[in-house]
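In practice, a research group might receive sequence data for several interacting partners and want a quick structural hypothesis before committing to experiments. The following worked case mirrors that situation: the sequences arrive first, and a predicted assembly follows.
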Amino acid sequence: MLPAILSSPSSSSTSTFPLRYSSLSSLTNLSSLPLTIGCRRTSKKSTHNNCSIRVQASSRMIEKETPETERPHTFLRESDEGSSGDDSSKPNSVRARFEKMIREVQDSVCAALEDVDGGGKFKEDVWSRPGGGGGISRVLQDGDVFEKAGVNVSVVYGVMPPEAYRAARPVDNGDTKPGPIPFFAAGVSSVIHPKNPFAPTVHFNYRYFETDAPKDTPGAPRQWWFGGGTDLTPAYIFEDDVKHFHSVQKGACDKFDASFYPRFKKWCDDYFYIKHRDERRGLGGIFFDDLNDYDQEMLLSFSTECANSVIPAYIPIIEKRKDTPFTDEHKAWQQLRRGRYVEFNLVYDRGTTFGLKTGGRIESILVSLPLSARWEYDHQPVEGSEEWKLLDACINPKEWIC
Amino acid sequence: MLPAILSSPSSSSTSTFPLRYSSLSSLTNLSSLPLTIGCRRTSKKSTHNNCSIRVQASSRMIEKETPETERPHTFLRESDEGSSGDDSSKPNSVRARFEKMIREVQDSVCAALEDVDGGGKFKEDVWSRPGGGGGISRVLQDGDVFEKAGVNVSVVYGVMPPEAYRAARPVDNGDTKPGPIPFFAAGVSSVIHPKNPFAPTVHFNYRYFETDAPKDTPGAPRQWWFGGGTDLTPAYIFEDDVKHFHSVQKGACDKFDASFYPRFKKWCDDYFYIKHRDERRGLGGIFFDDLNDYDQEMLLSFSTECANSVIPAYIPIIEKRKDTPFTDEHKAWQQLRRGRYVEFNLVYDRGTTFGLKTGGRIESILVSLPLSARWEYDHQPVEGSEEWKLLDACINPKEWIC
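A structural hypothesis for the assembly, expressed as tokens:
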């Protein structure tokens, strides 16, 4: 027999962690990091086995969360709210303003969705962490229009391995040996799956990431990044809808930099790629990450503009398509495409896979999955059919606006 | 901006490959390696874009497959059928006898399933590879009893990176620098999902793995391993069914070694572990891997016995449960458990994840997924309910037979 370390399934799966997340970029790339980093829930297990709360320190980068009955006015640490003289400690710090923005976006998007749904209401879960940070998960399930809609915000204070920080520094002469680097991350993340197969799924996520200056390496820089995006995943193509959606994204981008839309549109097509199918999850939108080579205030405004564009980009499409009559065949095709959504999220999405490996709050991580999905063996749409046209556009991304 | 290598999503996901599969054990551990290693199908894309056949050499360890209209009498290379004096080249070599065994098992299991289904018939896809090897995929979909049943055999001639071979050798003094190691793998793999929520899903997989002696390292040993297992995944517990299933597994094990059942039962509970849920996929069975520290003939007989035990372990349970009346609530719970099945297979199962990363035949890899699955936000069964009992047994594995 081989040594246990080589043959044990569990050792093999945990050992990938330090290898896979060995660069800071991998951390900041996580499309739903702020959403998902949390703690495995223990309430379920406590009814079964009092001693089964297994916290694996090696795979946990942040503290365990505790449920809250009320939303706090902020998830920032007190020191981040006061005025210690540090830039991050002012009420108008980027941290504070980003948190305010994502919470306002959560409120406005949830209100708009409840309004268009007419029947469904969001259920809310709030949690915090002893050392600061926390989150609000809101889910509307089985409404009149929406099958499942999750809109989450989260604020995380964590610590990353020093290798991650070192790997991301442009020049590393190997002289410095920093210890673990504290980081701050905040974000809003949402996936909205409607019932009607002609009404598209939308996903958006906007996040901000900062490292503290390492205490044992005087002079090493504090770093910050913005990331995010909004993308559309229909089961059927209505060109007007897709053009409208992309136009709103382009409009938000063009207010800041003419290069943003083409660059972030392509980044989106590249990111939401289901490699084993050689197709994209949907029809794209915009996606950006590790963005720090522009003015910080400009990028904060840009993120805010993008997040505020979700409602005008998406709600008019839902209004138009939510009551379109459909057949069982249309529904089955939507369910097959939902299967692709599951494949992308569980296999490739870095926020999801990272959250699952690090003990994030599972229900928040997996709220992105549709209520139901389907896998048929070797399903091939008839060439030229509406289903085929969607698949073709997922395989060969198009320019929707000129 | 960070260097592209750090920020590009695709580079990040492909770079994990050599890290994650850096030991031979990781390769031989793959629960459906022989099933899944293949090639991305190109037929779909060829109708869309003639130049879109993108074979990424870095993630391909075996040749592209070609569809066949008829089953060949063997997938072995001609040199493996003849008599070159090498042990592997005799008609009664372990390679040849293992292939014969798995093809007989495929035939008998498919016949038994069609018989109990009454209506559904298996659809067959056959493929081969120019340099030897190939496979037969059989799928019964939307039958009277079975929602989706896949039974596949596959024979693979591949090449593994030398690091994999070196890492798996018990003593590596670092003096030898072998080149890539040719390997042979063959296996039968199957997942059977019935429609009735009281009728359990079963999975089985039996595989044999051999390396050639490395040509540039005279004297380095040829290696071989057996792996496999059979496990049951019900949505509801009928103790009699679970006891019957485990008894048949134990019976097969006990014919060979009294230590096998307890050891392989625990291995199964450990392997089919959904870490992010802290629960097992189902109620287990047996699982073993990297098995080479017994007589090779004994292990061939043992694998054969296990594979032949699938029908007596499973079919009587299906006969008993296939027509049990059920409600929409029972069906919804089955669908939620199917969601867990999808989570395990896409996130943890090494055969699936390896197959997806290496360009395996996608439809064969993902035939293990159920026809449909469901994810409800924060679903918690009522304590003491039948659903809770199943979940409890998945969280706290039980000894089903004394």
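Before designing any experiment, note the following. The two ends of chain A are 62 Å apart (CA to CA). Residues 1-59, 166-172 of chain A have pLDDT under 50 and may be disordered.
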